[in-house]
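User: Here's a chain of 321 residues. Predict its fold as tokens.
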Amino acid sequence: MATEASSSSTKKQLTPTDEQIQRITEKISQVHKRISQASSDAKRENEPRLVAISKLHPPTSILAAHKHCQPAQVHFGENYAQELEAKAKVLPESIQWHFVGKLQSNKAKLVASIPNLFLIETLDSIKLANALEKVRAGLENAEPLGVYLQINTSGEENKGGLSPLKSEGEANESEVYKLAVHVIQECKHLQLKGVMTIGAATNSQASKEKGDMQDSNKSPGEIAAEARSVNPDFDTLHTTRQVLVNALRKSDEIQSAKDRYPTLLSGDDKGGLELSMGMSNDLEVAVRAGSDNVRVGTDCFGVRAPSRDEAMEAMKDELES
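Assistant: Prediction complete.
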């Protein structure tokens, strides 16, 4: 990321209240405990990344988490381009932002120009990839911007994302494969980091109800497979990654990118690509199923304002730089 020497200092004198600090640090601590316990139960070597979804919460709440949690909460997710841009201007550059909402190509410059943007989690078209690439290419000393390909694992019309992959026979003609190849070949200022899904609410609720599984006598692989069987969206995303990795390794189109994607082209079966799945309701099952990146909002910050207009009005003074 392109950051300045003073990146750890705030850009505006924002001061969280004692109540904010206590409430938010306690909530995020509880989320970390859930992640740690689920990781231990699954016999995982590494815990997934926690992205605290901060949309419609004020900058002081984000600062309370970033400065007062132990360890510091670094990754935060936002859904709206203008809100992310405004918050990034007044908060430390030591924060690593994730954009997790639907991003239109005409808003790409607004988001991709943020120097401490860590990841776009919702890439779903070549048009958007090109728009992001153009912006990042114009930034001085900017590291490649991470992107996830968004997969619509549930097939719901109201969900964004590309159709999942089920078999290698269909892979080369799929939008997922074509977008992955385009990012790898044509977008030198982007870095393909993985695949993500939001999934169906009904599957998420089922995961919550079956979250307490007995895993002590099973191998890590068996634990992950059982967890994926609980939530079809998790299983579909896992399959999509595997099919995509296998198809890319057989492709002559991307062999020239081996220096940028060594693990993808010749590493383990994950190909260095992350799975981003799991939220508050299905957190434990997602961790057991192998998620590398979990997104948690309410359980980190509490209930949001009833409407976006009310939330933006309430934080207006904090956003004035």
